[in-house]
Design a protein that fits this description.
TIM Barrel; 14 helices; 7 strands; metal-binding; signal
């Protein structure tokens, strides 16, 4: 279920807005290999923040996104204020999936009660959340997360969905799209994950919505075979166009291990391996060898607004 939820939101995309490629629309060369390396889950632990900050500062990770419900948000806010050019978006949260590290809503419980369990925490998975969630309460909660970040001095560059829960139903997906439009921010949706999805998702997308070409992320089978192998293969085969590669960077240790609670999928060892690879000279060399250009969500948004 966790793997399904983490991948679900990657499966949504809209129709190509024109016969012209997105890269060309945005003023890039049609044959350029463009890549956002995107680190999820800032705020969840100090170890996640430190690993992600170091990876961002090193220049090989070009973007990251923030969970406003989580305990280490103030540290992220200090980093964002000190590094205003950092490409930081909002990782909109509707679940609290870890056994021993839990969080509730940002909005007051009386305003979003359909999202909370009997103990006041967000539910552990997308399916459980979707069974009870009221779309307008979802809208209230994700807007509260954005506003909390902004109040702390964070100016988000984009929106994406933690564990994919904003794609759990077409109604929630519309809330996701509408929120991006309201704030003038791109949201993470991609062309390559369209196959097999209900047409209602595609129909919700309009010409206002920026849709990237490809979205890639490692799953549990890739971890078992070796994350470095997966990433090297993805880079070697990266197509031309606008690509996003989702990763999870954190420094292993007692805190990360405590969060994972023995769970392997997206756990402490996985996050350290992501940090190791994307902080390495090998990764920098692969970018050069494959002719891959790192970009950010901020750059995409600025170019999109110019072309609109």
């Amino acid at each position: 279920m966790r793997l399904f939820c983490c991948l679900a939101f990657l499966l949504f995309a809209g129709p190509r807005l024109s016969a012209q490629s997105l890269a060309s629309i945005l003023g890039y060369g049609p044959d350029e290999k463009l890549l956002i390396v995107h680190a999820d889950d800032l705020g969840v632990t100090h170890a996640t923040n430190q690993g992600s900050f170091q990876a961002l500062d090193g220049g090989n990770v070009s973007s990251a996104s923030i969970m406003a419900n989580t305990p280490w948000l103030p540290e992220v806010a200090r980093y964002a204020v000190a590094n205003p050019d950092a490409d930081l978006g909002m990782h909109l949260v509707l679940t609290s999936e870890w056994r021993d590290l839990k969080w509730g809503s940002v909005a007051s419980a009386d305003r979003v009660s359909s999202l909370l369990d009997s103990t006041g925490y967000l539910r552990p998975g997308c399916a459980e959340m979707a069974r009870t969630a009221k779309p307008e309460e979802v809208r209230t909660e994700i807007k509260a997360q954005i506003e909390k970040a902004r109040a702390l001095g964070i100016n988000p560059t984009h929106l994406d969905s933690h564990m994919g829960c904003l794609a759990a139903t077409p109604e929630l997906f519309r809330v996701y799209l509408e929120t991006g439009r309201e704030y003038g921010l791109p949201i993470l949706i991609s062309q390559n994950r369209l196959e097999g999805m209900d047409p209602a998702y595609r129909q919700a997308i309009t010409n206002e919505d920026l849709v990237v070409d490809n979205l890639f992320t490692a799953g549990e089978p890739d971890y078992e075979m070796g994350l470095e192998t997966y990433y090297r293969d993805q880079l070697a085969d990266l197509p031309a166009g606008v690509n996003v590669l989702l990763i999870h960077t954190a420094l292993d240790g007692a805190e990360s291990a405590g969060m994972a609670g023995g769970v392997v999928g997206w756990g402490n060892r996985w996050r350290q391996l992501d940090y190791n690879f994307f902080s390495s000279q090998e990764f920098a060399d692969l970018l050069e060898e494959e002719g891959i250009r790192l970009i950010t969500w901020r750059q995409l948004a600025e170019r999109w607004k110019e072309k609109r």
